[in-house]
Design brief:
- The protein is of the alpha/beta class and 559 residues long.
- Helices cover 45% and strands 11% of the residues.
- The strands form five sheets. Strands 2-1-3-10-4 form a five-stranded mixed β-sheet.
- Strand 1, helix 2 and strand 2 form a beta-alpha-beta unit.
- The longest helix has 33 residues.
- The radius of gyration is 26 Å and the shape is globular.
- It starts with a helix and ends with a strand.
Length: 559
């Protein structure tokens, strides 16, 4: 009995001890938070999911707070972020930092006068900032040409001047620059083998549809049904559709060398017919078009998906288990077409500083650190000799712990996408080992452009100056109306239950766009495109002349 009482007392003491430790730990974390100043950040990138800022000793976020005196409170709505940001602009309720990708929101931010010129901002609050010295001159000049001033830091810097500042030791990444694009088409190697297929069996649209049929009859290893085709969930219009219509040969140029919307090109119909076949035959599922990024990643991780079309960087896949044949070729002999930003790449995310931020000196210090060599190294690679090492040639290598942290969604290592600098990173990275995850991902992301018959043009030739198409102008109204209409009508085309319904919905799609003013908008864009041809000294060629109309029979495309 005494022994039982002693054990009980010991157990109670242990529980009290743990409670005290937990309370002390929480108290320490609360104290740490009180030592730093909150900076607010809003982003319209819905699938960017950084965890809550941690002050736990050893965490990446705690280390950043120690260096800068600040911590971030992220607001990233899962949907309608652009509308929410527009409302914040109107109500004058902008956060300290705004990370935007939507061109209309970016234009609205700049025209509002509520965000800083970064030149003025750093000269005022951090005159010794490295950004005033080493931000790529060509990128800054191009930004000023487009928007009138330097308002934002652009992520994924990789211009000529950037590569001169951060020189790579080989030509490997320079070659990637001219061929790599995130949007692509990839196939699950395991399901490919189980269906007794090779890459040579998935070249054309008709071949891929036959492959879908074979894979549909298989079951996944966990007993669930396979998913022959998956598009990029609720982002499919911007990535999957754009990629596929280019794969089928839709161009931005008509036979006279003038700009035309790709959605009005006949090759777009071919791509829609391919997808309609996939939905009608149960190779793809309409409910998957509403998935958010995390749901889509979970689905892919189950090893049930055979073919994925969309942003390959947003999947979280082990690239060694996937392969790309490049484009899915049209059965009508059209050349695949894709655009890559080859002149002065715009990057991806734009980070703005609000004029209403209450601690501009702190924002400037935080911004300066996160974009510096030291900040980039720490936020992307962690602690030297623990998370990464340098070899004798100066190349960086992640340790096993660093790899684990990098792939842990609850760790902030590598999650500051808005400050990521491609040229800086490539200056440190060795050439990936053949067959490694990085090597396989690079092969996937360059397969479309490297395909011998693919026509690649410079997307800079379509760049429009700020407010060139004002939202309040006639063309601006046409643009927003067309965008809303396409979001509504394209799903109806893809889900058509018969050839007749498909034809009706597609013809309605074409005629309605014309009625809504698509041609007038094309003319406006064409004027700037022709000016860009002169400015850059090159142009976009027409490679798929107009031919006879294509049709759809028995739910499949036919030559």
């Amino acid at each position: 009995m005494k022994r039982t009482k002693k054990l009980l007392l010991l157990f109670l003491f242990f529980c009290l001890f743990l409670t005290g430790c937990t309370a002390a730990t929480q108290e320490n974390m609360d104290s740490a938070e009180n030592n730093y100043t909150e900076l607010t950040l809003f982003s319209d990138v819905s699938f960017w999911n950084p965890p809550v800022w941690s002050f736990e000793e050893g965490s990446i976020s705690a280390g950043i707070s120690k260096k800068t005196g600040a911590y971030l409170d992220f607001t990233i709505p899962p949907q309608d972020a652009s509308k929410k940001l527009s409302l914040m602009i109107l109500k004058d309720e902008l956060p300290d930092l705004i990370v935007a990708t939507d061109k209309n929101v970016i234009n609205q931010l700049i025209r509002s006068g509520k965000v800083w010129s970064l030149q003025d901002f750093f000269e005022t609050y951090c005159p010794d900032s490295h950004l005033l010295k080493d931000f790529p001159k060509d990128r800054k000049q191009e930004y000023i040409r487009q928007y009138g001033d330097w308002y934002a830091y652009l992520s994924h810097l990789n211009t000529d001047d950037a590569r001169k500042t951060w020189k790579e030791k080989t030509s490997y990444y320079g070659d990637l620059f001219t061929h790599s694009y995130n949007h692509g088409i990839m196939f699950n190697r395991k399901l490919l083998a189980r269906a007794n297929l090779t890459v040579s069996d998935i070249q054309t649209a008709s071949q891929v549809l036959k492959a879908f049929e074979k894979v549909k009859k298989l079951t996944a290893e966990d007993g669930q049904s396979t998913i022959p085709l998956l598009l990029e969930g609720n982002q499919y219009l911007d990535s999957s559709i754009s990629c596929l219509i280019g794969s089928f040969g839709a161009e931005v140029i008509d036979d006279n060398g003038n700009y035309t919307e790709r959605f009005l090109q006949p090759e777009c119909k071919d791509a829609f017919a391919f997808l309609n076949t996939a939905f009608r035959k149960g190779y793809a599922f309409s409910e998957d078009l509403t998935l958010d990024n995390l749901q889509m990643r979970d689905l892919i991780a189950d090893d049930r998906v055979f073919c994925y079309i969309g942003n390959t960087s947003n999947t979280g896949v082990d690239a060694t288990r996937w392969v790309s044949a490049g484009p899915i070729l049209s059965d009508f002999g059209k050349r695949p077409v894709m655009s890559i930003d080859l002149s002065v790449p715009t990057g991806w995310m734009q980070t703005f500083v609000s004029k209403s931020c209450k601690t501009p000196e702190l924002v400037a210090r935080f911004f300066d650190y996160m974009t510096s060599d030291e900040g980039l190294l720490y936020s992307n690679y962690g602690v030297e000799n623990e998370d990464y090492t340098f070899d004798s040639d100066g190349y960086i290598h992640r340790t096993a712990r660093g790899q684990q942290r990098f792939h842990d969604s609850n760790d902030m290592l590598g999650l500051f996408w808005n400050f990521y600098n491609v040229a800086w990173d490539h200056s440190l990275l060795p050439v990936p080992a053949k067959g490694s995850m990085d090597d396989c991902l690079n092969q996937i992301q360059t397969a479309f452009a490297r395909y011998p018959d693919t026509y690649v043009y410079d997307s800079a030739l379509l760049r429009l100056p700020d407010n060139y198409i004002s939202p309040n102008s006639e063309e601006g109204q046409i643009e927003s109306t067309l965008e809303a209409y396409r979001k509504e009508q394209i799903p109806k085309i893809l889900s058509a239950s018969s050839d007749t319904e498909f034809e009706e919905q597609y013809q309605l799609f074409v005629t309605t766009q014309k009625e809504l003013g698509a041609k007038k908008l094309d003319q406006k864009i064409n004027r700037q495109m022709q000016e860009n041809f002169s400015y850059y000294g090159k142009k976009i060629e027409k490679v798929n002349p107009q031919m006879q109309d294509t049709s759809k029979s028995n739910g499949e495309t036919k030559p």
